[in-house]
Amino acid sequence: MLAKTPETAPKRYAAVDLGAESGRVIVGTLDAGRLALEEFHRFPTGGAFDADGSYRWNINRILSEIFAGLRKVAA
């Protein structure tokens, strides 16, 4: 079997998936035409009502969770 070079090594891609109730940071690995997904971090996105009675996401907390997930990917 031939050793994989940087050009033929599996390609890895980090992605963030935000939904109405939860978010997650995943890594997709593409190797020889096959895609494998691995979840690194999941968190609730849950919004809250603000003083005006509008339902809003806490974007600062969501960004904090995304960065926490990306740190796990990098580790």
Describe the structure.
There is one protein chain. The protein has one helix spanning 59-74, and strands at residues 11-18, 22-31, 34-44, 48-49, 55-56. The model has no long low-confidence stretch (mean pLDDT 88). It has one helix and five strands. It is an alpha+beta fold and 75 residues long. Helix content is 21%, strand content 44%.
The quaternary structure here is: single chain
Secondary structural class: alpha+beta
Q: What is the element string, with H for helices and E for strands?
A: EEEEEH
- Low-pLDDT regions: none
Beta percentage is 35-45%
Radius of gyration: 17 Å
Topology:
Elements: E1 11-18, E2 22-31, E3 34-44, E4 48-49, E5 55-56, H1 59-74
Short descriptors:
alpha+beta, 3-stranded antiparallel β-sheet, 75 residues, elongated, single chain
Task: Give a brief outline of the structure.
The chain has 75 residues and is of the alpha+beta class. The chain has one helix and five strands, in the order βββββα. 21% of the residues lie in helices and 44% in strands.
